[in-house]
Amino acid sequence: xxxxSVHECLKTSDPIELDHHIExxxxxxxxxxxxxxxxxxxxxxxxxxxxxxxxxxPTLFTDHLWWDIYSCTGHTMNNxxxxxxxxxxxxxxxxxxxxxxxxxxxxxxxxxLKTGRFTTKANLGANLATLTVDRKCSFWxxxxxxxxxxxxxxxxxxxxxxxxxxxxxxxxxxxxxxNGYNDFLPFEDQIKCLTGPPRTSMFDDLHYxxxxxxxxxxxxxxxxxxxxxxxxxxxxxxxRHDVLKIEVLRMQTQLMSSDPESLTAADIESxxxxxxxxxxxxxxxxxxxxxxxxxxxxxxxxxGYKLRxxxxxxxxxxxxxxxxxxxxxxxxxxxxxxxxxxxxxxxxLSRILAFQYGRTL
Length: 361
Prior knowledge:
The chain is α+β, with helices and mostly antiparallel strands. The protein has seven helices and twelve strands. The strands form three sheets. Strands 1, 2, 3, 4, 5, 8, 11 and 12 form an eight-stranded mixed beta sheet that branches.
């Protein structure tokens, strides 16, 4: 163990090895066992291991899986607003913006083939086009035990896979819009790190923040890891808001510069529908942003920063944590797809990352 550091001690692509590792970890004598498991992709074998050892309710995985207005799992409700309820998990639904080839702006794009979630393309003019992919990140944590131990599970969507159905061609290696979201760390930390988060996926970004910047978390609280999720989700909403503003301004400019006498009824109706869609999208994103902002707290200095109890909405002040930490990183194994009632459980290559905080005796 290295004091005040996070280091990697195990890699595996076998769920059985993960099962044995958790069994061995539970048998060790240690004070304040605190572990965070980050799973990318819903591999049934990893789900089985986590559910067995951590007693995670199955609704966490079903709620993360669904993205359908006809779902019976509660997706028509705003789960973000339920963070202060008795529910021990929360699902964050958010948009993620990508650049796409301008030659494919008019083509028919599929849903995300890995998650089944919606995709939307937008033409912003000047050979500029974006792809918006619906994403989800879910967080579960156990109760705080008498000795201060807790476990947490984070479910992340894998990088999107989208196909042009007209050409039967896959869009690979999608690049984030405008180089991705802004780093939310204090400027002094950004200067020290220089690179910032990779912005390749929620999994990779959480790996970066939890490994290099966990000192901003109050590890006495099981809900502490949700802090970074909320910050990342907020930045994605801001990016989406920027894209919508550009699209609205583009349509307004076109209408103002066009000759009214040359516009047909079809042109006017097309502009009206596009404007109405953008107006609804802006309002929806503003409402979601307001609800997320209500639960966020500002990052302060390392020696006296202020965080919020994410479940109770209470604030408290904490100092630096002088405790060691370990990191366990596991690869994933391709599992069988499954589904019920229209849900899409994709057979994807899952990755799992486990952070252990605390001193092992």
